[in-house]
Every structure is written in C-alpha cells, then in structure tokens.
Amino acid sequence: MRAASPADVEALYRHIQAQAWTPALDLLHRHRSALAVDPLWRHAAQVLVQELHRRLSEVSEAVLERLFLLHTGRLYALPEAIFTDVVAELVRRHADRPELARRYARWCPTHPECAHLLEPRPPETAWEDRDGFAVRRHLPERPGTPPSLFRSQQEFVFFQAVREVFPTYLVYPNVALSCLLDYERLADTLSEEERRYALQALVDCAVFDPDDGYRPRYCFELDSPLHGTPERRQRDTLKARIVQLAGLPLFCIRPPSGTVERDAFVALLRRLLHQNV
C-alpha cells in the first residue's frame, strides 16, 4: 500500500465539503492502513463519519452499506452510537425485505428499530380440514375493541334513518368512492386531481339494489360545519362531480346545529326522494 500524501488528505476534505460521499469513502478505503498510524487521516475519517452521521436519512443505500462495512470489516471503528444509528437506518431502508432487515438488526439487538424484528415469530398456523374445506384460523393475540365504522353518533343516527327509508335495499356506510363507479370508463373524463381523489375518497352512505346486481342507486353525504373550510369545499366539489359523472344521485345534507333525531332525518329523506322520483 503506497504511503498517503497530504494531497490525498486534502482531497478527502474536498469530497466532504462537496458531499461527494462515494469518492470520499473510496479514498478512505484506499488509505485504510494509514488510519492506524497517521493522526491526519484519523481526524479526516472522524470528520467524514460525523458529516455522514448528520445525513444518514439523506444518503443513498450504497453509502450507508459502505459505512456499515467500514466498521464491521474492522477498517475503521465507528463510535457505538453512530454505528447503532447506521444499523437502524439500514433496517428502516429494508423494511420491505424482512430477512435482510433482520440480518442488519442482529448487530444492534437492543435498539427499538431492531428489537421488534428479532422477537421470536409465532409458528405458522396450520390448515384444518373442515368437510373438504381448508381453513386457517388467525385468532387475536389479545382482547381489543375494534373502532366503529362511524365517526360520530350523528352519522350512526343518519345511517339508521337511511336504512328505514330503504328497507328492501342494502345500505352501507363509508363506501369507497372507487366502488361506486366504473373507473376505467371514467378515467379519461377526469382530471388528474379527480382521478387521485376518486381512488382515496369515501362516501358517507350508499344504497345498493340487491335485485339489480347490487348496483348503487343513491349516495348521501352528511356534512358538518367543518365542510365550510376552503379545503373541504374543494374536496366536496370533486366528490360531487365524480359521483355525477358516474350517473348516481348524490344528496349532501347539512343538519341544523345540535343533535338531529332519526325521525327528522327520515322525514327529510322521504321528501327528497319523492321530489327526485
């Protein structure tokens, strides 16, 4: 290995200043023997590592792995806290590759990002034979109370009113807007903003006809005072246009202040439907 020159150390500092991390690590690797004996190189290496530590979430995966190998290959010992942060960032970057993430996690098993990956995994539930059907049961690990479909008691009361008005139909709350339309047919008529919104929005209440292939027939929105903000008005406009293009009637209802009883909703809905028919 050729001796390191002051010019090489200066080149390393220039790479650091330019945030050229790959050439900086290449240069450090070429002169790795100097790290044990030359204080100038050791100081330059410390500066490089500190700068990379400040930017772990920004640098590329390849740079992170080079930094990891610098330590695990015993070329340059990173401070324990920095090495732990490097490992944690690599675990986060490989969240979609659990086996690889676990290999990194084993280096820092007590770090919160790593510990949960290293917990013993329960054995896979076996398939059971039930009269020719294969059944696999995944039972809850602990008691819990699932959240309600309704975001408020008023939404629940409104839903009950819609069910009363449509006793022979199926009524569902919080239906994905994309389930109410033929997206492929409408896509070309929608703007980019409308297409994005159509794939993420919900309709408060939708009525389906079980005697006609469970097709949607009516849509309802129960507005609150929050719908008066510019952002909510914009979203409401998008939803109304999309539903109209899908060929469905949409009724947006804003109750008076205070709690509205079910009978009041029922009376209003029947008047609206009578006028619509």
Overall structural class, as computed from helix and strand content, comes to: alpha+beta
Span between termini: 90 Å
> Regions with pLDDT < 50 over 5+ consecutive residues?
none
Strand content: 5-15%
Work out the helix count: 12
The geometry reads as elongated
Average pLDDT, rounded to a whole number, is: 89
Helix content: 40-55%
Instruction: Please state the CA-atom Rg, rounded to the nearest Å.
Output: 31 Å
What topology, given as strand order, has the largest sheet?
3-4-5-6
Helix-strand string: HHHHHHHEEHEHHEEHEH
Largest beta-sheet characterization? 4 strands, mixed
Number of separate structural domains:
2
Q: How many β-strands, per DSSP?
A: 6
Structure keywords:
about 280 residues, elongated, 4-stranded mixed sheet, alpha+beta
